Amino acid sequence: MKTNSSTWLGIWKYVVLGAILLSLLAIASTASATNSWNGYHWARTTSPFTLQLGKNLSSAWAPYLDTTSTDWSISTVLNTTVVAGRTKPKPCKATTGRVEVCNSSYGNNGWLGVAQIWASGKHITQGTVKVNDFYFNLSTYNTPAWRNMVMCQEVGHTLGLAHQDEAFDNPNLGTCMDYTNDPARNDGFGDNQHPNQHDYDELGIIYAHLDSTNTVFQSIDGGGKGKPANVGQNIDLNDPSAWGQAIRQDAQGKNSLFERDLGNGEKLFTFVIWAE
Measuring CA to CA, how many Å separate 15 from each of 2, 12, 71, 105? Predict the structure, then answer.
């Protein structure tokens, strides 16, 4: 039996439509998946709560932290406020009850940005965000889109969120919590420079309950009353060899999350986004 060209064309159309449908279903599945980070969260007795972001940044980075703070404060369960930093950018030491945000040229070590989070049990006690000017001074990454995405993503980790997707070459999901090779690109869901509704919904789930104690620093006056942290402060956390054991890999097989046991129920987690 002969099959004419119009029949083959019809079959081919169904094949293409089927492939497109499967791709859209895969994207929808990824977007609807949980990106809670194993239930880690800031302990607090009231809702919403306010988390301080200490600004240890150059003028090139300060506007991006402001944007990130505004974006995450859209959440109904938390607010973030930018306050004066309490550390030097290079060591970027943590302060109890808040997040210190730093930029410096941390060297040709492979990473664009890291979020480091101290936890006692399931409660986050302090955090740092570092963005690496060694790479952001290069033309590839020295763009508003890359600066927005990395700053937004690393602060998002300190709130208790993991990534929505860890494949750089997948369509952009319209969230900074999605890996990408071009954060400015819109693949139908928006660019990857800001949180999306799924991130806010996930935060609502994470912080749906209240705790009997607070690990969040309570004052928001920016007066610098938070105490420098002690646990793990003698470790050079700019060195990947100090991050502990890799416990998660991205779609390229690179380690994306590390865990270091500090003893006495204290752990240090490091989320990393690598330069390509």
Answer: 20, 5, 41, 50
The single-letter code of the amino acid at 61 is: W
Pairing of strands 99-104, 266-274: unpaired
How many CB atoms lie under 10 A from the CB of residue 156?
28
How far is the CA of 96 from the CAs of 42, 69, 70, 88, 131, in angstroms? Answer: 12, 19, 22, 15, 20
Q: Are strands 255-263 and 266-274 parallel, antiparallel or unpaired?
A: antiparallel
Q: How far is CA 112 from the centre of its chain?
A: 12
Q: Are 128 and 102 in contact (CB under 8 A)?
A: yes
Tokens 């071009």, located at residue: 182
What are the φ/ψ torsions at residue 133 (nearest 5 degrees)? Answer: -70, -15
Give residue-wise pLDDT tens across range 102-130. Answer: 999 999 999 999 999 999 999 999 999 99
pLDDT tens column, 189-219:
999 999 999 999 999 999 999 999 999 997 5
Which domains does the chain possess? 33-274 (3.40.390.10)
Please report the sign of the dihedral spanned by the C-alpha atoms of residue 114, residue 119, residue 121, residue 123.
Answer: negative
CA–chain centroid gap for 86, Å, is 22
Side-chain half-sphere CA neighbours of 17 within 13 A: 6
Instruction: Please write the tens of the pLDDT for every residue from 127-176.
Output: 999 999 999 999 999 999 999 999 999 999 999 999 999 889 999 999 99
Chain centre to alpha carbon of residue 115: 7
pTM to 2 decimals? Answer: 0.85
Separation CA 272–CA 238 (nearest Å): 11
Q: Choose among 116, 119, 87, 126: nearest CA to 238.
A: 116
Alpha-helical (H) ranges within the chain are 5-32, 62-72, 133-136, 144-159, 197-206
